[in-house]
Amino acid sequence: GEDVEQSLFLSVREGDSSVINCTYTDSSSTYLYWYKQEPGAGLQLLTYIFSNMDMKQDQRLTVLLNKKDKHLSLRIADTQTGDSAIYFCAEGDSGTYKYIFGTGTRLKVLA
Amino acid sequence: ETGVTQTPRHLVMGMTNKKSLKCEQHLGHNAMYWYKQSAKKPLELMFVYNFKEQTENNSVPSRFSPECPNSSHLFLHLHTLQPEDSALYLCASSPGLAGENEQFFGPGTRLTVL
């Protein structure tokens, strides 16, 4: 079945870049997504990328997609303490209403 | 503000109580979802409704009973819950099929079962 995998933790210093990685299995998804969850809150859609793109940049966020390896990454430039949160990668199960989420990567930004 | 609201935000209930969680979306979406998020576990899909019809039921115990009276409202009725049901319950909506559309989440209801 479909699966999305992420590393569980990442720690970076304030001002550095953060790179959160994700691997997925459903190669037919049109969209791949990144969500951010702050403590006690719901998931906030950060950005998404079409499967026919290799890269998408949105201010401090850069998404890279390697379809051959089914690898997705989220780079946060100039990471701030407010970026500390859990980041979820997700793909849509094509032809259904199901989204498959990774386990989430907890990003800790050290001042 | 994502356009998806949930009430209440926090709920404490005993194992013999009956309560309901409410979700409302103001986005004109067709599909609505309930997820359960427990500490240190992946996000669990519970139910999906599309145009008021249930399309997914992920082997959820019958003590959780969903209701979707229209495409803007979704309820989760709770009865005789167990302490292990304590979790953050998230509602979400999307315009259509998962591989082609974004999903938007509400803030969640933090449920504690005593």
* Average pLDDT for all residues of chain B: 92
Strand content of chain B: over 45%
**End-to-end gap of chain B:** 31 Å
Q: How many runs of DSSP E, i.e. beta strands of chain A?
A: 11
State mean pLDDT of chain A (0 to 100 scale): 91
Helix residue percentage of chain A? under 10%
Q: What portion of residues of chain B is helical?
A: under 10%
How would you describe this structure to a colleague?
The complex is a heterodimer of chains A (111) and B (114). In chain A, a hairpin with a 6-residue loop joins strand 9 and strand 10 (99-101). With 111 residues, chain A is an all-beta fold. Chain A contains no helices and eleven strands. In chain A, the strands form two sheets. In chain A, strands 2, 4, 5, 9, 10 and 11 form a six-stranded mixed beta sheet that branches. In chain A, 0% of the residues lie in helices and 57% in strands. The mean pLDDT of chain B is 92. Chain B is 0% helix and 56% strand. Chain B contains no helices and eleven strands. In chain B, strands 2, 4, 5, 6, 9, 10 and 11 form a seven-stranded mixed beta sheet that branches. Chain B has a four-stranded antiparallel beta sheet with strand order 1-3-8-7, with no helix packed on it. The A-B interface holds A 26, 28-31, 33, 35, 40-45, 48, 88, 90-99, 101-104 and B 2, 4, 6, 31, 33, 42-43, 45, 48, 50, 55-56, 90, 92, 94, 97-108, 110.
Brief rundown of the structure:
By secondary structure, chain A is mainly β.
Task: Provide tags for this entry.
heterodimer; A: 111 residues; mainly beta; six-stranded mixed β-sheet; five-stranded antiparallel β-sheet; B: mainly beta; seven-stranded mixed β-sheet; 0% helix
